[in-house]
């Protein structure tokens, strides 16, 4: 039944069959429906061919309906992950990285990933859309080390968008900035005591929080002069880091991450409630349509005050991060704790990324 649509769209099926559509039954009619890449392309083709709607109108309708494919990456710690303030090597923790933006699935099972001979840790959940019976796709090949931080490496010369379009066998030219929404789900708490009395039970004065990071493929220096360069490799050891910023130490002539003492308003996803040792789940949505402006030199708007009261970054609701993401970008999640006695206790974390096709 799907073959006619595949021929009509001129789309290879190894790309169409990215993430499988969830089964929908009357008993689950109230559940949120998450379309696959194929679902979205079929709907767009129907509106374009059957109704004669131009592409721009079809794209607008799909965006208004938020009818986008997505990938999901989750790690369950069972409440055992602890990020400890004032302890060297334990106060800045990398938690996970997502599948590259615009890639509907990890191309093959973890056991077949290049450079790996063991299964991923038990608490690591592979991104949704992975299908063991699906033939291996070409590069890129995201390794199953979704919990391994990349070494501090600044971004060099970037690959052109055409390189990523070829890698995913896109039926049409992808948007350079296709991301539409990121949903962070975090279940965590702090140590349950400490802080100023006036802040206890609120999101103010917290010294434990989570931030978004960003990794990007850049060409090896030896290939900088090549028009397309080599094929991008999405291994942790090969990715360059945009956030946290990478700085060069002049004394040692080595790169390192520039961690901040306090949360950055542009990247802070959520902090824990102060002196509350009960695990709480927070669901934070960043959308490309967000438009809440923050100016540190001006009186904050009621919307910014509400963000701060909820434990979110005051500059994270302007849509900048989402709109700036490029095809092939990798979003990362970090946990932080500062000062003696503060603990960031983590039960589970999940990142869902939605993009336009």
Structure notes:
- This protein is α+β, with helices and mostly antiparallel strands.
- It has two domains: 3-64, no CATH class; 70-355, no CATH class.
- Helices cover 15% and strands 25% of the residues.
- The chain contains seven helices and twelve strands.
- It has helices at 3-9, 13-16, 37-49, 55-64, 161-167, 302-309, 320-324; strands at 70-84, 92-97, 124-125, 179-189, 208-216, 240-243, 246-249, 254-257, 268-271, 280-287, 330-337, 343-355.
- Strands 3-1-12-4-10 form a five-stranded antiparallel sheet.
- A hairpin with a 4-residue loop joins strand 7 and strand 8 (254-257).
- Helix 3 (37-49) crosses helix 4.
- The longest helix is centred in the first third of the chain and has 13 residues, at 37-49.
- The chain is globular.
- Residues 135-153 have a biased composition (Pro residues).
- Residues 121-131 have a biased composition (Polar residues).
Give the low-confidence spans: 1-30, 107-121, 126-143, 223-227
Structural class assignment? alpha+beta
Give the amount of beta strand, in percent. Answer: 15-25%
Provide the succession of SSEs.
HHHHEEEHEEEEEEEHHEE
Biggest sheet details: 5 strands, antiparallel
């Amino acid at each position: 039944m799907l073959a006619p649509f595949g021929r009509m769209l001129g789309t290879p099926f190894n790309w169409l069959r990215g993430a499988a559509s969830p089964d929908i039954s009357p008993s689950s009619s109230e559940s949120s429906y998450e379309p696959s890449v194929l679902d979205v392309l079929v709907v767009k083709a129907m509106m374009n061919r059957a109704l004669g709607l131009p592409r721009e109108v079809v794209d607008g309708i799909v965006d208004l309906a938020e009818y986008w494919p997505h990938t999901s990456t989750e790690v369950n710690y069972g409440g055992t992950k602890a990020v400890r303030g004032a302890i060297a090597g334990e106060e800045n923790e990398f938690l996970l990285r997502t599948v590259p933006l615009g890639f509907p699935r990890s191309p093959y099972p973890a056991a077949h990933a290049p450079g790996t001979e063991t299964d991923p840790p038990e608490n690591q959940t592979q991104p949704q859309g992975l299908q063991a019976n699906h033939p291996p796709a070409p590069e890129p090949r995201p390794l199953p080390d979704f919990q391994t931080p990349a070494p501090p490496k600044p971004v060099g010369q970037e690959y052109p968008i055409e390189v990523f379009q070829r890698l995913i066998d896109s039926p049409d030219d992808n948007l350079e900035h296709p991301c539409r929404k990121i949903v962070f789900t975090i279940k965590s708490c702090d140590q349950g005591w400490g802080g100023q009395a006036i802040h206890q039970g609120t999101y103010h004065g917290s010294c434990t929080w989570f931030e978004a990071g960003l990794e990007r493929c850049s060409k090896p220096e030896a290939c900088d002069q090549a028009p397309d360069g080599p094929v991008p490799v999405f291994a942790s050891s090969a990715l360059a880091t945009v956030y946290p910023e990478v700085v060069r130490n002049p004394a040692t002539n080595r790169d390192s991450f520039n961690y901040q003492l306090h949360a950055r308003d542009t990247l802070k996803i959520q902090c824990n409630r102060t002196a509350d040792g009960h695990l709480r789940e927070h669901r934070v949505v960043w959308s490309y349509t967000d438009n809440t402006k923050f100016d540190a030199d001006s009186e904050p708007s009621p919307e910014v005050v509400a963000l701060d009261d909820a434990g979110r970054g005051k500059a994270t609701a302007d849509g900048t991060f989402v709109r700036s993401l490029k095809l092939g970008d990798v979003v990362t999640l970090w946990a932080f704790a500062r000062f003696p006695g503060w603990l960031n206790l983590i039960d589970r974390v999940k990142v869902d990324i939605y993009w336009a096709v």
